[in-house]
Automatic annotation (TrEMBL):
Name of the protein in its database record: NADH-quinone oxidoreductase subunit H
Listed InterPro entries: NADH_UbQ_OxRdtase_su1/FPO (IPR001694)
Assembly and oligomerization: NDH-1 is composed of 14 different subunits. Subunits NuoA, H, J, K, L, M, N constitute the membrane sector of the complex.
Biological source species: Streptomyces pacificus
Family the UniProt entry places it in: Belongs to the complex I subunit 1 family.
Pfam families linked: NADHdh
First-listed, main subcellular location of the protein, grouped into a coarse class: membrane
């Protein structure tokens, strides 16, 4: 009974984090973009530093009419936002934020494979939305999403495999237990490949070809309004939290602090995740969108070879240096 209660409390805590952190990232993106681009509008809602901007956005979405196109596949159209959002909740359940099994919602032995597989499911939400909308621009955006997933799933998996090789386990807890700070110099390429491929899977700039407003209006989400559209935005911000959390756990030591400073525990995980989330926002503000051919070329001629080279280097280190 106590074990069941413990698991229930951990899952409840993960759910609370899932509801709060993506909203914090969304609010932060408003503020960071406002400062970097000189757009001070988000600084006024609610007075001091625009603290009510998030509330204003929520009220705006709830007031908008919920429209379903007459020619759309209604059931698939309505289900797509949930399919896009829920996989990130499942991934968050498996990410450890501190030492021991009590700091993770559910312990998954093959955690690396689980989180990468479930993250790929989220893309189905975009495919469902584009196909069910009965809109050619939406369908084109969905097809771009599929092509992007196929291109960037492989380097992301290979990069994660390199750190799993270094740790000798595919368990996220096991990787953190085995982590050594001297891994950073020779795993940095894998970390960059994983992070860039993750941005592409989330369709974040400069990889936002599936939602290129200058070409296909807003891609798979063109026909969505109100709360259903807000759920797709929430899925994007939840994806940022998950990507940054996974990068922290796999490549940055998770709850391990630098220079032996382990006392902060799970706060180290949150701090590293927050810094990476800021980098994601910074990239959005400062990077122009890639062309479709550039996007595919980056994946197949740069990221995949780099990920394979990282695996080869990891094999050499495991045999020659690391016992």
């Amino acid at each position: 009974m106590n074990d069941a209660l413990d698991v229930a409390l951990r899952l409840l805590a993960v759910f609370a984090v899932f509801l709060v952190l993506p909203l914090v990232v969304g609010q932060t993106e408003h503020k960071v973009m406002a400062h970097m681009q000189g757009r001070v509008g988000p600084m006024y809602a609610g007075g001091f530093h625009g603290w009510a901007q998030l509330v204003a956005d929520g009220v705006k979405f709830t007031q908008k009419e919920d429209v379903v196109p007459a020619a759309a596949d209604r059931r698939v159209f309505q289900l797509a936002p949930a399919v896009a959002l829920l996989p990130y909740l499942l991934v968050l359940v498996a990410i450890p934020i501190g030492p021991g099994e009590g700091a993770v919602g559910v312990v998954v032995d093959a955690g690396v494979f689980f989180v990468l597989a479930v993250m790929g499911v989220g893309v189905l939400g975009s495919l469902m939305a584009g196909w069910a909308s009965a809109n050619k621009f939406s369908l084109l955006g969905a097809l771009r999403t599929a092509a992007q997933l196929l291109a960037y799933e492989l380097p992301m998996l290979l990069a994660a495999a390199s750190v799993a090789m270094a740790a000798g386990t595919v368990s996220l807890l096991g990787i953190l237990d085995a982590f050594e700070w001297w891994w950073l110099p020779w795993q940095i390429v894998g970390a960059l490949v994983f992070f860039v491929a993750g941005l592409a899977e989330l369709q974040r700039p400069p990889f936002d070809m599936p939602v290129a407003d200058s070409e296909i209006i807003f891609g798979a989400y063109t026909e969505y309004t109100g709360l259903r559209f807000a759920l797709f935005l929430l899925a994007e911000y939840a994806g940022i939290v998950v990507l940054c959390g996974l990068t922290t756990v796999l490549f940055l030591g998770g709850w391990h602090g630098p220079f032996g400073a382990e006392g902060l525990g799970w706060l180290w995980t949150l701090l590293k995740t927050a810094v990476l989330a800021f980098v994601v926002i910074w990239i959005r503000v400062s990077s122009p969108r890639l062309r479709e051919d550039q996007l595919q070329r980056l994946a197949w001629t740069a990221l995949v070879p780099l990920a394979l080279a990282q695996i080869a280097l990891t094999g050499v280190v495991k045999v020659v240096i690391q016992p």
